[in-house]
Amino acid sequence: MSSPQQPSDPDMAGWNDSLTGEFLWSNVNLGEAMPDVMTSFTWSIVRSNFAEVNLLPGCNILGNICGRPYSKFNLE
């Protein structure tokens, strides 16, 4: 598989986690709970809450793609 495209702007990676590696992204249950685009403040709260319940330290299971939450599944 080809390597993911690196964003030219470092801040852009924070809004598009799909550029961080090869993962399978799903918005099935999260999209029903949070259907609208989130503000950066809302995203910081959601990310910190998911970090507290993460079972694998250092393995983030939540991503933000264009302001919407997605669950991440590792393909490696």
Helical content (DSSP H or I, runs of 4+) = 25-40%
String of helices and strands: EHHEE
Global Rg: 12 Å
- In total, the number of domains comes to 1
What is the strand arrangement across the widest sheet?
Answer: 1-3-2
Determine the structural class based on helices, strands and strand pairing: alpha+beta
Give the averaged pLDDT, no decimals.
Answer: 77
Mass-distribution shape: globular
Which residues sit in consecutive blocks of at least 5 with pLDDT less than 50? 1-10
The number of strands is: 3
Could you explain how this protein is built, in words?
This protein is an alpha+beta fold and 76 residues long. It has one domain (12-74). The protein is 25% helix and 20% strand. It has two helices and three strands. It has helices at residues 28-33, 40-52; strands at 23-26, 62-65, 68-74. Strand 2 and strand 3 (68-74) form a beta hairpin. The chain is globular.
